[in-house]
Amino acid sequence: MQSMTYFAGNASPKVGEAVSARHGGTLGKSELVRFANSEIKVRILQEVTDTPCVIIQSLSNPTSERVLELAFYLDALRREGAASVDVIIPYLGYARQNIQHLPGECVSAHVIISLIESLGARSVTTIDIHDEATAGVFTVPFTNLSALPLLAHEMKKTIAVEHTLVGSPDQGGVERARGFAEAFYEGGTAPDLIVIEKKRNLEGVHDSQAVELYGDVTGKDIILVDDVATSGGTMLHAAQLCLDKGARQVYTAVVHADFGEGIIEKIGNAKLFQGWYTTNTIEEPSKKLKAYPLFHQIGIDSLL
Question: Which reactions are catalysed by this chain (predicted)?
Fold first, then answer.
């Protein structure tokens, strides 16, 4: 069987290099051309005829450009005669827009899935998709991996399990927090989860407020678990509520660091978190994260 050739989009060069190296190869040669009118073009720079290929690309900020880049890679590889093209999307942007919250809205996640499939992707793999129900939209083989066990095992190295409670910063993330807890308390008995009730303003953008906490956090270390953070508001409000209710200190485990402008600084200066653990599914913020000791970024290439 012919070995895979891996390509990485501009959003995921380090993950692409690490995954390709794990499989004993180097990244395929390609280029992204930018024109003065803001258009882009992808070009494959090596022979791929009859070769099975993989393209690795997170759909992260600038999200719409990353989507087009992935689409152009798919088209270019198929035009060059690739035997097949499998797609790895470490962070599936637009996945939170998977239902109509308000009348008249598009369902962006379905549009992205239709685009990828229409361009001939043989399969799609992602990490911690926002809502697992979205898997049912795909008509090609789809795999949703989880990085939460990676984060749990990393955090166990420095956080005492016996003094720690795991929680969800909103009601919708309970199963996600439970999955993290299974790995964090592996071999032991997991205490009940704490859950924070969040009220969201659907007319606003990144507008939510923690209103109630269920569980006793007095004197405990808390790990708040979520799939993605953009504005940081959910975690900031949840952490403050835990501390107000008597928690000793708060940590977070967030898979995707999809931070908006100025959010890393906002979190880093808030003095609410003892540690913030994330992955490199989104590579862009790596340099800024290193400026604050509380951030820890874990590589996801072992999952792939």
Answer: D-ribose 5-phosphate + ATP = 5-phospho-alpha-D-ribose 1-diphosphate + AMP + H(+)
